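Design request, tokens follow.
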């Protein structure tokens, strides 16, 4: 089954930037574009009209935005769906059948980052497919300026497999370099077990051990995408800080997430949260596991 690149649009400047980003990605990957708008009937004197009439007006407005985008990208196949329902539910449903879901987000401060509303947080934490956050200030030229696709890697080869796969697929479509980043910190001495000490001795120390772990995680992707240039980056520090330290060279940041279910709803991990709030480029959040109850 061919999955479309899907964009959630609500008429804001940020969502239109996400629409344009999604259109470019669809062209690069040779996939159709699906544009989704979550709609609710509003009884308002200034609006007038019955539900179907209002829905038609909304559909016409979204379709006009899509026609403007397809005019910039000849050959792009696009469809528009105006779906009644709660925005978070509609977008989660749209993400389930998509290659990825692109959403707009307001810039955090004058230069960088994202402000995530409740809908965006719910979608990022619950989506079964990658979600890409795009700011209104997104510059398409950055994708052709030699910047990298930066992706975080942690744990063993399977722990970040989904995020790595998404990063390599995206870089292959763009002709970009992938920078794979692994951060490490000094663990408490009591965390060492005889088995872990043996592994460290065999690797020659902590940093060589981390470099070896990163290379093992990346090896299957190098074999699968032999034409994609790869930079392996190992640095001491917190994962969020190390990722943000190289964000200036990124055209896209990719982070994995394993959502945690709490009494007030699902939340994402601290690394994804930090990157989303401070990166100046689009950020892709890729699920690599089910929601974990707490």
């Amino acid at each position: 089954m061919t999955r479309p690149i899907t964009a959630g649009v609500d008429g804001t400047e940020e969502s239109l930037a996400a629409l344009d980003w999604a259109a470019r990605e669809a062209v690069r990957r040779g996939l159709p574009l699906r544009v989704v708008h979550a709609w609710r009937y509003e009884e308002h004197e200034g609006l007038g009209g019955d539900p179907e009439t209002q829905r038609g007006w909304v559909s016409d407005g979204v379709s006009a935005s899509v026609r403007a985008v397809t005019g910039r990208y000849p050959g792009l196949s696009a469809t528009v769906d105006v779906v009644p329902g709660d925005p978070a539910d509609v977008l989660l449903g749209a993400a389930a059948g998509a290659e990825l879901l692109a959403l707009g987000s307001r810039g955090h401060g004058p230069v960088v980052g994202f402000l995530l509303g409740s809908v965006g947080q719910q979608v990022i934490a619950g989506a079964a497919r990658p979600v890409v956050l795009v700011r209104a200030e997104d510059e398409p030229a950055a994708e052709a300026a030699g910047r990298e696709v930066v992706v975080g890697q942690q744990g063993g080869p399977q722990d970040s497999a989904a995020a790595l796969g998404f990063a390599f697929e995206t870089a292959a479509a763009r002709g970009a370099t992938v920078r794979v980043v692994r951060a490490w910190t000094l663990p408490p001495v009591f965390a060492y077990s005889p088995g872990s000490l043996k592994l460290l001795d065999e690797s020659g120390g902590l940093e060589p051990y981390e470099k070896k772990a990163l290379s093992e995680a990346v090896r299957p992707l190098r074999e699968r995408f032999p034409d994609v240039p790869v930079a392996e980056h190992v640095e001491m520090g917190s994962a969020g800080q190390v990722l943000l330290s190289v964000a200036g060279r990124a055209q896209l940041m990719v982070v994995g997430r394993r959502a945690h279910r709490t009494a007030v709803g699902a939340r994402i991990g601290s690394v994804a949260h930090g990157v989303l709030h401070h990166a100046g480029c689009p950020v892709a959040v890729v699920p690599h596991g089910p929601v974990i109850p707490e």
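Comment from the thread starter after seeing the answer: thanks! Residues 148-293 form a domain with the Rossmann fold fold (CATH 3.40.50.12370).
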